[in-house]
Backbone:
């Protein structure tokens, strides 16, 4: 049994309560670790440590801050096998995906922000012959970073890297459902020589340690990625304190396939967009809108490809899908499959749990599921399922497609498949989405703004937007 510890002021320590939460491997259903059930007193210690570390951290030359973050990235690479296995054990995702995507991206996040701060500049404005204005971007102090379970180390580092690079000290809370890689990361911080208190990692429940953290008066900003309901609660808690708030929330993303698209390529990518990570990526395309003239052809190809996906023990190289993250999430996804049928949907493939043998006989596995025949306004097409469930809907005109794509409370991402250049520009401009991919999906450039409209979030992460979020902007006007 692995006993995880909090990371406070450079040391690994048990929670003050002495209480732990079970951590379950979703592929086997077995408890394999104990996670600190931290509370207000742990938050207080971590915030004090961060506050005390801040003056020295902010005074450190940028190149030295950068070097420490680069050391951490190198250590992630050196420990990538261990981290990938921990991610898969915690989350249930295929080990091949942890190795290919999660862990390399965690290192890339640190490298990106470690080097970005070496190349920043701020604006100056000459005001006629009267004054020179220049802008300072100064770190905020102590900030909170809260991350979810679907891409644990990937999203954890996506938040802490810009916060630390910009000169802040951080108290971070990973999801208690998938805490292991953040725990190993705290060991890497010790090896990298990160000064004590600069980063503190608290484990535990969102409703307990998470809330205490975001409410703490010393915390100047909260960067949160998670569900829309949790985002609402956090916004209500921190708004009266006028903290800076970045919210990356849920999605119900559309994949739009027009008749000019390369059908083979768009079907292959629509499968990836719907089912990567068991459909548990906020950017997954779970509503696939297809022009009626190619609908039957696309449907046949798409369903054939989905049927070829292997739901397997995530440790096996051939696994395309592993387990969903938890028993409660497994029940939630299956309940949406039932709901879809009650709403008149026809299951084209999947639609059931998968019972594996041996090591994984108690795991939470669901067959990738494709459904057609649902209206746009039914709950299955409106609510975020966050699982391997995709719906197919035909459309006739471009306008109809855009309206359907926009007709949910969310607005995170969309992917558009067309070979008509003008159509691509027109549709992209009319979609209510923070991110639009044309003839691709999840092609990421870390310099680009990332985030959602409507109930998918507030603010943008990525590139300079993240560094700006973690700083306070000050204009200085000097009269001649
Ligand atoms: P949750 O909102 O349940 O949790 C996210 C994090 O917030 C967890 O660490 C959680 O802790 C913590 N938390 C929960 N309640 C509170 C609270 N009241 N105060 C402070 N912290 C709290 O999301 P999930 O972990 O279930 O992640 C899935 C969701 O994340 C999906 O909706 C998905 O779309 C979204 N997401 C959005 C992304 C984006 O970039 N827009 C990217 C990835 C995911 P605990 O685990 O203990 O509940």
Residues:
């Amino acid at each position: 049994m692995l006993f995880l510890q909090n990371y406070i002021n450079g040391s690994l320590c048990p929670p003050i309560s002495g209480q732990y939460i079970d951590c379950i491997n979703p592929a086997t259903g077995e408890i394999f670790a104990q996670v600190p059930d931290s509370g207000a007193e742990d938050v207080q210690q971590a915030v004090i440590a961060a506050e005390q570390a801040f003056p020295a951290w902010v005074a450190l030359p940028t190149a030295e801050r950068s070097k420490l973050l680069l050391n951490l990235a190198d250590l992630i690479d050196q420990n990538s096998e261990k981290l990938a296995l921990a991610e898969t054990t915690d989350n249930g995702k295929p080990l091949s995906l942890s190795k290919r995507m999660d862990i390399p991206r965690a290192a890339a996040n640190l490298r990106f922000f470690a080097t970005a701060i070496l190349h920043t500049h701020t604006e100056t404005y000459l005001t006629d012959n009267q004054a020179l204005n220049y802008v300072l971007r100064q770190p905020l102090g102590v900030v909170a970073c809260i991350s979810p379970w679907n891409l644990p180390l990937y999203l954890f580092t996506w938040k802490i890297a810009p916060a630390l690079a910009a000169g802040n000290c951080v108290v971070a809370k990973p999801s208690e459902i998938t805490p292991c890689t953040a725990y190993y990361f705290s060991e890497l911080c010790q090896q990298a020589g990160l000064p004590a208190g600069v980063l503190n990692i608290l484990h535990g429940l969102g409703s307990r340690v998470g809330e205490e953290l975001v409410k703490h008066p010393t915390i100047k900003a909260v960067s949160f990625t998670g569900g829309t309901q949790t985002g609402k609660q956090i916004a209500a808690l921190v708004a009266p304190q006028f903290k800076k708030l970045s919210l990356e929330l849920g999605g119900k993303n559309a994949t739009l396939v027009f008749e000019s698209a390369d059908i083979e390529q768009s079907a292959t990518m629509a499968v990836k967009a719907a089912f990567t990570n068991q459909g548990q990526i906020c950017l997954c395309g779970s509503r696939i809108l297809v022009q009626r003239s190619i609908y039957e052809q696309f449907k046949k190809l798409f369903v054939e490809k989905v049927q070829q996906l292997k739901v397997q023990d995530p440790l096996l190289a051939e696994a395309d899908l592993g387990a969903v993250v938890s028993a409660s999430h497994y029940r939630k996804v299956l309940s949406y499959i039932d709901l879809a049928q009650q709403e008149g949907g026809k299951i084209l493939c999947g639609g059931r749990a998968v019972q594996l043998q041996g090591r994984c006989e108690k795991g939470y596995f669901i067959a990738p599921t494709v459904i057609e025949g649902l209206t746009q306004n039914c709950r299955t097409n409106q609510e975020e399922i966050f699982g391997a469930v995709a719906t197919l809907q035909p459309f006739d005109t471009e306008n109809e497609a855009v309206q359907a794509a926009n007709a949910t409370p969310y607005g995170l991402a969309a992917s558009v498949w067309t070979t008509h250049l003008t159509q691509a520009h027109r549709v992209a401009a009319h979609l209510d989405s923070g991110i639009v991919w044309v003839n691709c999906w999840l092609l990421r450039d870390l310099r680009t703004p990332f985030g959602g409209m409507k109930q998918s979030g507030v603010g943008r992460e990525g590139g300079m937007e993240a560094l700006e979020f973690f700083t306070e902007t000050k204009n200085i006007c000097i009269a001649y």
About this structure: The chain has a mean pLDDT of 98.
